[in-house]
Give the backbone structure.
Amino acid sequence: MQHRKTLLAVAVSAFALFAASQAGAADKITMTMNWRADSAHLGFALAKTKGFYEAEGLDVTLQEGRGSGVAAQLVATGQAELGYADAGAALGVAAKGAPIKIISTVWKAGQFGINFLEKSGIKTPKDLAGKKLSVPPGSAMVPLVPLFLKANGLSEKDVTIVSAAQNASIGLLTSGNVDAVAETPENIAVPLAAQNIKAGHIYFYDHGVPLISLSLIAREDKIKANPDLYKRFLRASLKGWEEAMKDPKAAVAAMKQVFPESDKTPEALMTSAPFSFESVCPGGKGDKIGVTDAKGWEETYKVMTSAMNFPTTQPIASYYTNDLLPEKPFLCP
């Protein structure tokens, strides 16, 4: 009898250990980023250090990338479970037949726009009339600038377009050789701030040219096989972005913890964080983090098909899904 009790106790103990080990086994998942770690990744870093992924039973690796197109291709070929890439690049890969979908729009609006020195007196698109505007050749700005000008009652004849390399933008501005540059504020305002020079900016998305930017993408077959995995990842990630906006200092500290070799200083990250948050929350307080509705997608589709040679062979709804997003959305503070 005692022998049977001992065997039973051993069996129960073994089962308990097995159950505990199974309960503690986190699902491993790798997210390949669009580029080197910077303010565009603050929410993910905070979600990792705060244990949001762990609480969802996930063991997440945040992997620095080599461009949005590469991230999309890695997901398409099954080499990464998740990619974080510019929507334009991801949709370009999907339009060629890659079985991927956008599952969340983190940067619901791109940072593309017009940047200028604060002392220039430029405040609205109309103020660009008669001014010199630098546009980097071969950049995404080239097709967007004419669209932006037209949307605001201007034409290319109303401004003097100067074609100049991207790395010349700051020098052209500070020397007075141009009045404005078509760029992102992170590439202009942040380095100028380090020189104690104040800059202003006008976003395209605020002035008639809405364009979704950095988004999360996954393979269709993997989504179908394990939708819960992606739901948990999105829940933790979007919570991370909500908390990052509430406490930018903590988010910056998390970034340096997760990516200690990053060349971005805490000061630079703090300066650029507000621009990233503006892209996450273009609608301001109460905007739903990571969620773009059908109307927003249609507006982006219109811009892409009219200015970026995106094919019209499929409806935009075939390229994304909102089915994996949290039932209770996280909101912009």
